[in-house]
Design a protein that fits this description.
alpha/beta, Rossmann fold, 8 strands
């Protein structure tokens, strides 16, 4: 695993552009559908394209983005909330120059965080916006307030599901909750571990139809990721799959997801 390095205060710097970072929340109604893997790999791909990217692990108390990135964070959001560390001190370097903020693993106090604690984290995320190009928030699975709070500050929300019936039902559940909470920004659907493009299209049509009929909300199609053994292989290697297996089928489809989202970014990528 990669040893962490805290971000020097000078590294949290203004982009020098009029636009703020674009904030994406990645959520799922059901756990185990690959939400965190998509978050980490999208961040890695954006960074490789020249966008300064930060991943905030908002699965509070059970964070694991650092595991997929091969990191051992010494300080987390728990330290920030307890004023044992500044925001700059809990940001660490990951693969492809992606910055990571961990939500802490096995920390009951973070899992039970009250509204004021969540607001401090929301404010911290907002404070990052002038200093990077992309913020990806990896939320917890489910429809708790800790999920919908993070969705509420996002410019775009990506809902991840598989073709499993329970996963589809739970994906509709999170879509329903955030729309009924007043979220009116783009919601994008990404379908993971599909066996064919047709399977992904069928899932999208089901969820889009339900969203339009019962919520009067237009769900966007982001794309799919196929079933690919290289994804699990990358988990074992503690690396993003797009880094560990850059020529894999999963990486090829991930690049399509990143390209579909890239048009929403307000910043111009850095050039070498």
């Amino acid at each position: 695993m990669q040893e962490p390095r805290g971000m020097d205060q000078n590294e949290i710097r203004d982009t020098g552009k009029d636009g703020l970072a674009t904030v994406f929340s990645v959520c799922s109604g059901k756990g185990g559908v690959g939400k965190t893997s998509i978050s980490v790999n999208l961040a890695t791909e954006f960074s490789r394209r020249g966008y300064r990217t930060i991943v905030v692990d908002a699965d509070l108390g059970l964070s694991n983005t650092h595991i997929l990135a091969g990191l051992r964070p010494e300080k987390t959001l728990s330290d920030y909330l307890e004023k044992r560390a500044s925001l700059a001190e809990i940001v660490i370097d990951g693969p492809a120059d992606v910055k990571f903020i961990s939500g802490g693993s096995g920390v009951r106090e973070m899992a039970d965080l009250d509204a004021s604690g969540r607001q401090r984290i929301l404010d911290a995320i907002q404070s990052l916006r002038p200093h990077c190009d992309v913020v990806i928030i990896d939320t917890a699975a489910g429809i708790s307030r800790s999920v919908t709070d993070f969705v509420s500050i996002s410019d775009h929300t990506i809902v991840v599901t598989t073709s499993n019936f329970a996963a589809i039902a739970d994906a509709y559940g999170i879509i329903k909750v955030v729309v009924q909470d007043g979220y009116d920004k783009p919601l994008h659907l990404a379908i993971n571990r599909v066996r064919s493009p047709e399977e992904g299209e069928q899932v999208y049509k089901k969820l889009k139809g339900c969203s339009e009929r019962f919520l009067s909300f237009d769900l966007n199609w982001l794309g799919l990721l196929p079933e690919d053994n290289s994804v699990e292989g990358a988990v074992l290697k503690r690396q993003p799959f797009c880094e560990a297996f850059p020529t894999s089928v999963a990486t090829r489809y991930l690049k399509k997801l990143a390209t579909a989202l890239e048009r929403y970014l307000t910043s111009v990528p850095l050039t070498s």
